[in-house]
Design brief:
There is one protein chain. The protein has 102 residues and is of the alpha+beta class. It has 3 helices and 4 strands. A 4-stranded mixed beta sheet has the order 3-2-1-4. Helix 1 packs parallel to helix 3. The longest helix has 20 residues. It is elongated and about 45 Å long.
Length: 102
Amino acid sequence: MRKAVISIGSNSTRLLVADCGDELKNRYLGRAETRLFMGLDESGCLQEEAMERTVRALCAMRLEAEIQGAESFTLLATSATRDAANADDFARRILDKAGLKL
């Protein structure tokens, strides 16, 4: 089965598409510079521009993963996302726009 994993990091968002069977075989790697952590304000909220930049990257990565034949998606995030004061809003936005559950 071909699977996609997308990881939202503090500075970049990465995509791996791989065949997962008896042996793991990478099929596609992608990376977008999203600088999410730089969009964290004094109150601990992710700023609008940083969230939108990341959501656009997620939409593009989901499309690329589908083109590459991915049958399932896993979305992970580092602490910049998990610990943000508006993390729930960001997760909802990702689900609504990219169709991915954080």
